[in-house]
Amino acid sequence: MTIEELKLRHSALLAARYSGTRSVSYDGKTVNYGTDAELAAAIGDVERRIAKLERGAGRVLRPNAVKDL
Fold first, then answer.
1. Is residue 36 in some structural domain?
2. Residue at 65 is within a domain
3. Reduced DSSP (H G I as helix, E B as strand, rest coil) percent helix, strand, coil of the chain, to 5
4. Is residue 15 part of a domain?
5. In-domain check, residue 46
6. How far is residue 31's CA from residue 23's CA, in Å, rounded to a whole number?
7. Per-residue pLDDT of the chain (69 residues; tens, 9 = 90+)
8. E strands present in the chain
9. Which end of the chain is more exposed for a tag (fewer CB within 10 A), N or C?
10. Number of domains observed in the structure of the chain
């Protein structure tokens, strides 16, 4: 899933939560969440996935030790 798709899904989830509904539609699919906690968990999951993609591979640390002679 691309970052653009995740951001669209995130905005759909937030709109549903702020409007008080627990039904979200995207990509021709409809998902019904039983409780607000389930909807909040879905939002958190999408936010973590977006953050992971935006972070990229991350930094690679290569230790370099020099012995003082």
1. yes
2. no
3. 55, 10, 35
4. yes
5. yes
6. 6
7. 889 999 999 999 999 999 998 899 887 889 999 999 999 999 999 999 999 888 876 667 788 878 776
8. 23-26, 29-32
9. C
10. 1
